[in-house]
Design a protein that fits this description.
31% helix; 11-stranded mixed β-sheet; 267 residues; 2 domains; 11 strands; alpha+beta; Aminopeptidase; single chain; 7 helices
Length: 267
């Protein structure tokens, strides 16, 4: 049994929120609203998102305030994430009542790797590499671009991101892995280390290579390296249709669902 209490795991999940370079962030006592930069967007990832809301005011008041900010940004709407921790408790109901449409859901999953690594039954023949140079970084970046349907970055952006990745790797603050099948880049995924916590992120497998074990191979190496560098808990947000079943079979525990609603700015 894990030594990590559910409240502690959920607090760790809240600390996973991504704020990339170029983002605009508004944090109040009631919510966190972020406008993501264009390079981070894909068809399923809207620009304006409320990543958490813990308001002491009526939901309608908070929603009106957020929609006003989003409209001033020139965005067509906002993606609003809710969970059991969202306050007020009727926020999800109010979002639906105002025309909000559910567009995404993830499960908060965690594994106590301090007590041992899960058995992932990685198939033979998958070459998994730590991304520690320019060619590997470029290959991993292209897997991300193709896998998520994002715009291809410029050479300047690639150079900037490579420098940042190598800087993070030098102190083991963050790292990423790349899996190759038959010499072809197939899957990538990253990990950020914060003391005892290993935050897993960004895993994607290209469609031609799915169901061949590359995700498990990348997961296994991320967990091994995370534990080797002091992590005791691995935490990730997984989707029910892709990574969550693999993670649950590997011994991760489910700590609840986060759901996302798209709410258009009123005409």
């Amino acid at each position: 049994m894990s030594s990590w209490a559910p409240k502690r795991v959920l607090e760790a999940a809240a600390a996973m929120e991504w704020r990339p370079d170029g983002a605009t962030e508004i944090v109040t006592g009631d919510y966190r609203l972020i406008r993501y930069p264009g390079w981070a967007l894909d068809p399923s990832f809207p620009a304006a998102q409320v990543t958490r809301s813990r308001a002491g005011r009526p939901a309608d008041q908070v929603i009106d305030e957020v929609l006003g900010r989003v409209a001033r940004w020139g965005q067509p709407g906002v993606a609003w994430w809710v969970s059991a921790a969202t306050r007020p408790e009727d926020t999800e109901q109010v979002l639906r009542g105002r025309g909000g449409t559910r567009i995404d859901a993830v499960n908060i999953l965690a594994c106590d790797i301090g007590r041992g690594l899960p058995e992932l039954d990685v198939p033979a023949g998958i070459d998994v590499r730590l991304v520690d140079d320019g060619p590997l970084f470029r290959a991993a970046a292209m897997v991300t671009v193709r896998g998520w349907g994002r715009a291809e970055p410029s050479e300047a952006d690639l150079a900037r991101d490579l420098a940042e990745a190598l800087r993070d790797l030098s102190g083991w603050a963050s790292f990423r892995m790349l899996a190759l099948i038959d010499g072809e880049p197939a899957c990538t995924g990253g990990c950020t280390l914060r003391g005892e916590l290993a935050h897993l992120w960004g895993a994607v497998t290209l469609r031609p290579f799915r169901h061949r074990g590359s995700y498990r191979a990348v997961l296994a190496e991320r967990l091994r390296l995370a534990r080797d560098h002091g992590a005791a808990l691995a935490i990730v947000k997984g989707r029910s249709g892709t990574s969550a079943p693999i993670l649950l079979r590997a011994g991760f525990s489910d700590y609840g669902e986060e759901r996302c609603y798209w709410l258009p700015v009123p005409a």
